[in-house]
Amino acid sequence: MVQAFTGEHVQKVDRKGRMSVPADYRRTLEGGDPAWTELLTPRLVVVYGQHLKDSLHSFTVQQHDSIVARINALPLGSPDRKRLGHVMITQSQKLDVDRDGRIILPLRMRQKLGIEEGDVYFRGMGDHFEMWKSDTFKATVEEDIDAWLAEMPDGYDPLSILGGT
């Protein structure tokens, strides 16, 4: 079973787009890349589709292949297949992690984040991880979570959303 992407990290991206991928994320990428061996570095698929607004979503090769297969199972020519294909397949790119654990984040993706160089916030989401400009994440996602929790009664357990277990 492939390990999930968890936790949060802040990494620096330089002017050339070089950025370290957190070490625990690299282990998950290795487990989700069918071509990976001890002699090779893992790959990942970064989705930068229009639907993501201020973030990028990164998947293991296997996870992205699974998404592509599900999209391709939709009826040929259907609007949903075309739209999903555009935002999840066309607007994605496979990247290699180098021997030092870095990727080169293409300029187009850095521009989407609104960053040429500086801090990138990584957020593990189980089956994928997100990349955000740190300031944007704080001003949007963190504020949204804070507002949601402020509406809840004292002692609220967020896991209650999942129902009885």
What's the total count of β strands?
A: 8
Q: How far apart lie the N and C ends?
A: 22 Å
Helix proportion: 25-40%
**Can you list the strand order of the major beta sheet?**
1-7-8-4-3-5
Q: Could you name the ranges where pLDDT drops below 50 across 5 or more consecutive residues?
A: none
Order of helices and strands: EEHEEHHEEHEEH
Mean pLDDT: 94
For the largest beta-sheet, the strand count, sense and barrel status come to: 6 strands, antiparallel
In one word, what is the shape? globular
Radius of gyration: 17 Å
Number of helices: 5
Q: How are the secondary structure elements laid out?
A:
Blueprint: E1 8-13, E2 18-20, H1 23-31, E3 43-47, E4 55-60, H2 61-72, H3 79-90, E5 92-96, E6 102-104, H4 107-113, E7 118-124, E8 129-133, H5 134-151
Antiparallel strand pairs: 1-7, 2-6, 3-4, 3-5, 4-8, 7-8
Helix pairs in contact: 2-3
What are its keywords?
globular; 24% strand; 165 residues; alpha+beta; two-stranded antiparallel ribbon; six-stranded antiparallel sheet; 5 helices
